[in-house]
């Protein structure tokens, strides 16, 4: 006969088993919805996207102190598919598994286009967790605050990314910019962008807490660099209020000669300037063309996505006002000319993410042409070739090029992360008290650090390197630091990270420390060895 305590444990165990079964059923339901979306072509996860999603899961799994991954991919190369791959990977049964209801997709865009398009492409079970900028202060905050084991994916992270703007303010309000909160609540953040701008430079300063995962394009991808090399990109010019505006439009007409009937996107200025641009086009082109306006007022009635599926009976100019920037995709089969709005002050990210970016992807028709800023393409190519180096000059609203030619952040949400109330990024930038951490895995880690020390540290620090440690009778390794009775014990990686500066502060002669720790202190197989030092 069971006593009261045994009965409670039996009930608790039974309920836990039911929860696991329920979670398994929900995961199967999610997988079926993903398969259904792929069946009609709404949301197909391609091979390169699946690999990127698996890589993002792996880096979180390999680095227990990791808080944020920045996924960088070329425009329309499949970042959205990687997002869906992450959903699939992070909901599979594993130590990294995240409950379906704890996955959030957000953006700094205020665009209802983005919200509608994203909801259409993800499993129905997750649609209530898709939030654009107007939702962040209410629905997102209410949904995520206080939760543990969550995955937040931020699409187009370069938008509204300033530390004074909505995302930073809401994250700060919730606690998502405090290191202790993120670690204690097991928060995983994945940011996506083709032009990360200042968020990239600030993310680099998170040290061990951030990683960059490049998203490689798949087969048959055509990017803006490819389009430029094919001679299909021309320098854009003023089509509205310049003495040469009419001649600039005649240049478009010449390029269209011999082109079969197509839709042509022309981005214009606002108000009367749009009217002036249309008047200029009517002066150059005969009556055998159509003119449409695509803006927030006409977008529903025009139903642009449906219209583009059918070849037009005659050349049709679609004049854009504000819409069709980053995150918007168009079917390209029947598109001929893409013409970006000319500006005297040029931001490279706006150019790359504008009509030039909308012209890229996997469904290039091979004959469309783009009028945009050629120098921005050159800078984008250099940015990728350099591995997003600070020495690559890049103009955006969240970066500034200093007098010494270095591209720096103007201050973004990624620069507001706080470590125990202090601004972590400020610490790292000043190189005042943030040590480096080199990690070695498993039992062999003690041997590996010896040869690594000899090759990398002996000349600077001297000596033989870290002393060999012996395990306890139970086979675990203990570390000693701190004060009090419990200064020698088995440590988690999270706890060791909090003490990473022990014996490294100013005035101490110790060059480095070397400690064992565990991703799970009950599992010997999760052993890591951390060599902590100042550069």
Could you please describe the fold and organization of this structure?
This protein is α/β, with parallel strands linked by helices and 535 residues long. A 6-stranded parallel beta sheet has the order 3-2-4-5-1-6, sandwiched between helices. A 6-stranded parallel beta sheet has the order 7-12-11-8-10-9. A 3-stranded antiparallel beta sheet has the order 17-21-20, with helices on one face. Strand 20 and strand 21 form a beta hairpin. Helix 5 packs parallel to helix 6 (166-174) and helix 10 (245-256) crosses helix 11 (271-284). The longest helix is centred in the N-terminal third of the chain and has 36 residues, at 4-39. The radius of gyration is 27 Å and the shape is elongated.
How many strand segments?
21
By CATH, the superfamily of the largest domain comes out as P-loop containing nucleotide triphosphate hydrolases
Indicate the proportion of strand residues: 15-25%
Give average pLDDT, whole number: 85
What structural category do the secondary elements indicate? alpha/beta
Any idea of the CATH class of the largest domain? Alpha Beta
What's the CATH architecture name of the largest domain?
3-Layer(aba) Sandwich
- Main sheet? 6 strands, parallel
């Amino acid at each position: 006969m069971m006593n009261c305590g045994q009965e409670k444990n039996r009930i608790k165990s039974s309920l836990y088993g039911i929860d696991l079964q329920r979670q398994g059923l929900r995961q199967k339901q999610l997988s079926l919805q993903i398969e259904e979306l792929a069946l009609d072509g709404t949301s197909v996860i391609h091979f390169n996207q699946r690999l990127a999603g698996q890589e993002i899961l792996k880096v979180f799994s390999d680095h227990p102190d990791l808080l944020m991954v920045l996924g960088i991919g070329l425009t329309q190369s499949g970042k959205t598919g990687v997002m869906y791959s992450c959903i699939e990977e992070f909901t599979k049964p594993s130590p990294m598994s995240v409950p379906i209801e704890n996955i959030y997709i957000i953006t700094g865009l205020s665009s209802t286009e983005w919200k509608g398009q994203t909801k259409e492409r993800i499993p129905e079970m997750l649609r209530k967790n898709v939030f654009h900028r107007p939702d962040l202060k209410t629905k997102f905050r209410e949904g995520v605050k206080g939760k543990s084991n969550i995955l937040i994916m931020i699409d187009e992270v370069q938008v509204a990314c300033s530390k004074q703007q909505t995302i930073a303010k809401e994250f700060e309000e919730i606690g998502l910019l405090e290191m202790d909160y993120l670690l204690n609540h097991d928060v995983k953040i994945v940011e996506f962008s083709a032009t990360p701008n200042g968020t990239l430079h600030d993310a680099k300063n998170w040290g061990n807490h951030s990683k960059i995962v490049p998203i490689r394009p798949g087969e048959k991808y055509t990017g803006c660099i490819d389009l430029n090399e094919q001679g299909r990109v021309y320098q854009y010019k003023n089509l509205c209020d310049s003495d040469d505006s009419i001649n600039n439009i005649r240049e478009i007409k010449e390029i269209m000669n011999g082109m079969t009937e197509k839709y042509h996107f022309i981005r214009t200025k606002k108000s009367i300037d749009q009217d002036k641009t249309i008047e200029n086009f009517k002066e150059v082109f005969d009556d055998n063309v159509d003119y449409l306006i695509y803006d927030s007022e006409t977008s529903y009635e025009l139903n642009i996505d449906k219209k583009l599926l059918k070849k037009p009976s005659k050349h049709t100019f679609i004049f854009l006002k504000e819409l069709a920037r980053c995150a918007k995709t168009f079917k390209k089969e029947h598109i001929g000319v893409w013409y970006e709005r000319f500006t005297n002050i040029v931001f490279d990210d706006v150019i790359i993410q504008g009509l030039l970016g909308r012209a890229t992807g996997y469904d290039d028709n091979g004959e469309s042409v783009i009028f945009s800023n050629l120098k921005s393409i050159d800078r984008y190519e250099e940015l990728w070739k350099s591995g997003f180096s600070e020495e690559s000059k890049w103009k955006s609203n969240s970066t500034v090029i200093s007098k010494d030619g270095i591209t720096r952040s103007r201050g973004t949400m990624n620069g507001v992360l706080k470590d125990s109330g202090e601004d972590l990024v400020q610490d790292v930038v000043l190189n005042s008290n943030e040590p480096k951490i080199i990690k070695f895995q498993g039992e062999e880690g003690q041997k590996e650090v010896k040869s690594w020390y000899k090759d990398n540290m002996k000349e600077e620090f001297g000596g033989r390197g870290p002393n060999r440690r012996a395990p306890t009778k139970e086979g675990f390794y203990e570390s000693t630091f701190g004060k009090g009775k419990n200064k020698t014990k088995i440590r988690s990686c999270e706890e060791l990270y909090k003490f990473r500066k022990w014996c490294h502060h100013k005035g101490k002669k110790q060059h480095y420390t070397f400690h064992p720790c565990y991703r799970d202190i009950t599992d010997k197989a999760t052993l890591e060895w951390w060599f902590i030092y100042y550069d």
